[in-house]
C-alpha cells in the first residue's frame, strides 16, 4: 500500500521536496491506473469472472462513478482528514486542533 501523506507533510512543513513528491504521485497514479485497467481486462475480456459477477461489477462501477461533485469533494476532505489523524496517532502525537 502506498502512502503519500508523509512526503506531502514534508513539503508543507519545509517547502522542499515538491519535485520528488510529484514524482511519487505520478508513479502511484500510473500504477493504480494500470492495475485498474488490468483488472477490468481480466474481468471482462478474458472471462476471468462469471457473467453474473461481471454484470454486478459493471453495475457497481457505474453507480460509483456517478456521484455529484460536491459529494465526492466532501468525501475526499473527510477521508484526507481521517488519514492525517491516523498518521498523527501512529507517530504518537495528539490530533491537530
Keywords:
97 residues, mainly alpha, 0% strand, elongated
Q: What does this protein structure show overall?
A:
The protein is mainly alpha-helical and 97 residues long. It has a domain at 1-49. The chain contains four helices and no strands. The longest helix has 28 residues, at 18-45. The radius of gyration is 18 Å and the shape is elongated.
List segments where confidence is low: pLDDT < 50 over at least 5 consecutive residues: none
What sort of overall outline do the alpha carbons produce when their principal axes are compared? elongated
- Summarize the helix and strand pattern as letters: HHHH
Summed up, the helix count is 4
Structure at a glance:
Helix content is 77%, strand content 0%.
Task: Give the topology, please.
Elements: H1 5-14, H2 18-45, H3 51-65, H4 69-90
